Amino acid sequence: MISTYIPVAQPLLDNRYEVLRLLEDGPWSMAWLAEDTRLPSRRQCIIRQVKPLITDPQMQQQLRDRIQSEVCTWQKLGGIHNQIPWLSSFADTKGQIYLLEEWIPGVTLTQKLQENGPFDEAMVQDILIQLLSLVDYLHQNQVVHCALEPNHILLRAEDNKPVLQYGGIFNQVIAQIFLENNIRPIPWITTSGYLPYEQVILNRHYYSSNLYSLGLIGIYLLTGKPPHRVFNLTTGQCDWHPQIPMPDSAFAAILNKAIARFPGERFVTARQMLMALATPRRFMQTSLTTHTNFIQQMGAYFSSRCFSLPSSEPTFNSYSS
Fold first, then answer.
1. What is the average per-residue pLDDT within 37-53?
2. Is 26 helix (H, G, I), strand (E, B) or coil?
3. CATH class for the region spanning 105-283
4. Which of 131, 152, 195, 217 measures 20 to 30 Å from 112, CA to CA?
5. Same fold for the domain at 10-103 and the one at 105-283?
């Protein structure tokens, strides 16, 4: 489908970019592959247009300001770290916003899995290590990614390294504007299941929120099943272990810690999770020691409570089941 948003009489966007083909037609934006006609190399790029879904001028300005703020944040990071594409923006004479993004040939993690099936443990571990290094760089710059999921991570054709894509970030920004202004119905809210509850429900973002997403990405790559197919709605637990050959491995334990429900139960930093992946035996020993100490502390607590009960108060084993 060809977008009606590109003026027919204007062959070049911003008098510079020649559109080659449509890449994406989403609920919030459209994206095209284009060439920069002002460069001798005619470098290719992605041009993303935010759809004019809002008619209120004040909200339009709010959306422009929020998107520009995101662009400024990612401009400082993109092009410096080799797994973050460069990003820019421009507006036409009508104030329509366009995002300009580096074009990187490759396939998303979702496409790769659909083509080849689930990954083996070594491949998943290698991808997570590279993503954790990237996320650690973001966290050092006080940035928590708001949309980490397989559809937004590209395996670069040149070296097979995982690279971020910006589409999901700006979808989240636009959805947040709708929520803040109480606009209903909301055309799109992420239901992918890769974001933790504190991001989706409480709108709180912690460093460990990104580690939760990475843990679920690892499980998806291992099992071939997205979160909604491995979460047990009755227990609230992620029952993914029967889907893999070694459910009791250290790697499985590391992923389980990453996807713990509460932020305080997860890895605190990306570096901590990286260290666990680098030394899985030490991680298992530390986890076992921590668990044993906890059980001993709880046992001592309950013992002290039992022995301190008044004679008139029944002991625990006198209660009915």
1. 89
2. coil
3. mainly alpha
4. 195
5. no
